[in-house]
């Protein structure tokens, strides 16, 4: 017996429809005007990281991010995005500061030269409103007809985009969700146009996405961001961007010059499925992520969420994991929404849910359990030797992935489809997963599986490592 799985249909997106959907959503969010004086030009940070109000940080999970004018241009890319409190709240009072790892925001651009098919990446800088950059952002040199895709990630609950000027969001085709029903942590600008240009370049042979390859350690195909071996309750979310954070709470792009000039600055990152794939899982398997020259880091090879999606579209074989309607980020008032699911999928170049009914929530849950469980179990020893992305969740990569799968079962409400959690975690007194056993019995939605584990794996305790959003690959 085999699990029912999600198999993608070869249905092309209608660009006109997609752009219409995006434009319908990009004109609604609020607009504000941010002056140079409000940014505190030359004044430095408004408060040090240690001066934040602890109660506000604990209570608030939402922030706003001011999008600079013309963010798709070279000048716009080099203009800092401004993190501030929700509904005009003060950054310090709300905890919405880049120095707060629970509420920091990150922006990532992927750039296509449609004439040559060449790709590059760039990390636009996010600073706390009222501060200045610790170092001026690099002004990138873009091709004349460059097509720019921007992805935004957040370590908190809900991040609302706000235009620096009237029309900023609509001109950049920024999508934050379905009206006031935000995606939550993620948003994007100009994704539909970018992927349309990329597909055209691939059709003409100008853009060649490399093969994903085979793991030299397992002999299996290297996983992608659309692999059921890796997905969780909200796949294809957040970016691989890193910034440097100084002791005074200022941020700068990560490059050689800034590292030398800002001695002691720490690297901060987005808690991202893509960073998990690119910085942890692929290296552990001996696989290599898709990279392009990073224009904010002297052309050094850089990863991006968009590069991961291009690679997944090229390399992921059936079953293909696509954003399901029970993903918490695409729910509207707790209910399924094909419209909001499609808006999310547009930003990561996936087939629309209305045309892709095979990816039902029940089948997504079953495929995740039936494919990811044996993958983690088979690589238990290998992953146990890798530092944990989040030591507070699991004491190494193996236990982290097991805990993540268990949480995804709950967050996707997979039990309502007659499925059972395949993971049995052992935790220490602090709630950190230190071992896991698995039930490898294949499940079908609506069919109760056996309760006796058919295989198990136990992780070796490993207390080393720092959180993945603070690591430099």
What strand line-up does the widest sheet have?
4-3-6-11-8
The poorly predicted ranges are: 1-17, 26-57, 450-473
What number of structural domains do the residues give?
2
| Biggest sheet descriptor | 5 strands, antiparallel
Beta fraction: 15-25%
Q: Taking all residues together, what is the mean pLDDT?
A: 86
Give me the number of helical elements: 14
Q: Structural class of the helices, strands and pairings?
A: alpha+beta
- What Rg do the Cα atoms give? 21 Å
* General shape: globular
Structure explained in plain terms:
There is one protein chain. By secondary structure, the chain is of the alpha+beta class. It is built from 14 helices and 19 strands. It has 2 domains: 12-358, no CATH class; 360-473, no CATH class. It has helices spanning 15-26, 36-39, 54-59, 74-77, 91-94, 168-171, 191-203, 256-261, 273-284, 305-315, 338-347, 361-378, 380-384, 397-411, and strands at residues 62-67, 81-84, 105-113, 118-122, 126-128, 147-154, 158-163, 174-175, 177-178, 181-182, 187-189, 242-245, 251-253, 266-269, 292-294, 300-302, 423-427, 433-438, 455-457. It has a 5-stranded antiparallel β-sheet. A hairpin with a 5-residue loop joins strand 12 (242-245) and strand 13.
């Amino acid at each position: 017996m085999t699990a029912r799985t999600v198999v993608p249909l070869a249905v092309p997106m209608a660009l006109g429809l997609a752009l219409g959907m995006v434009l319908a959503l990009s004109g609604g969010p609020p607009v504000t005007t941010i002056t140079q004086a409000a940014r505190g030009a030359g004044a430095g940070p408004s408060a040090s990281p240690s001066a934040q109000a602890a109660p506000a940080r604990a209570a608030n999970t939402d922030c706003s991010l001011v999008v600079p004018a013309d963010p798709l241009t070279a000048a716009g890319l080099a203009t800092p995005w401004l993190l501030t409190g929700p509904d005009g709240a003060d950054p310090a009072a709300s905890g919405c500061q880049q120095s707060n790892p629970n509420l920091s925001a990150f922006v990532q651009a992927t750039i296509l030269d449609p004439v040559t098919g060449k790709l590059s990446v760039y990390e636009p800088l996010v600073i706390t409103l009222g501060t200045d950059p610790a170092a001026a952002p690099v002004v990138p040199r873009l091709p004349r007809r460059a097509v720019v895709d921007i992805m935004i990630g957040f370590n908190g609950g809900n991040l609302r985009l706000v235009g620096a000027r009237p029309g900023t969001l609509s001109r950049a085709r920024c999508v934050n969700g379905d009206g006031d029903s935000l995606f939550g942590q993620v948003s994007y600008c100009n994704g539909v146009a970018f992927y349309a240009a990329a597909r055209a370049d691939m059709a003409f042979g100008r853009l060649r996405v490399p093969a994903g390859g085979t793991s030299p350690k397992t002999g299996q195909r290297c996983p992608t961001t659309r692999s059921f071996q890796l997905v969780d309750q909200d796949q294809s979310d957040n970016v691989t961007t890193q910034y440097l954070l100084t002791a005074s709470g200022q941020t700068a792009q990560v490059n050689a010059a800034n590292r030398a000039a800002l001695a002691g600055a720490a690297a901060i990152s987005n808690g991202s499925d893509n960073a998990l794939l690119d910085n942890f899982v692929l290296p552990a398997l001996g696989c290599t992520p898709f990279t392009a020259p990073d224009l904010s880091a002297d052309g050094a090879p850089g990863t991006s969420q968009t590069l991961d999606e291009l690679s997944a579209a090229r390399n992921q074989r059936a079953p293909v994991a696509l954003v399901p309607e029970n993903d918490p980020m695409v729910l509207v008032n707790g209910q399924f929404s094909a419209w909001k699911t499609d808006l999310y999928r547009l930003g990561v170049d996936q087939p629309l849910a209305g045309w892709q009914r095979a990816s039902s929530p029940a089948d997504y849950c079953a495929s995740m359990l039936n494919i990811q469980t044996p993958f983690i179990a088979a690589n238990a020893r290998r992953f146990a030797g890798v530092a944990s992305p989040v030591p507070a969740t699991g004491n190494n990569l193996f236990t982290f992935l097991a805990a993540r799968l268990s949480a995804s079962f709950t967050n996707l409400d997979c039990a309502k489809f007659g499925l059972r959690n395949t993971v049995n975690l052992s935790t220490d007194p602090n709630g950190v997963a230190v071992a896991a056993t698995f039930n490898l019995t294949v499940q079908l939605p609506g069919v109760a599986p056996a309760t006796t584990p058919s295989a198990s794996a136990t992780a070796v305790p490993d207390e080393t490592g720092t959180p993945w959003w603070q690591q430099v690959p």
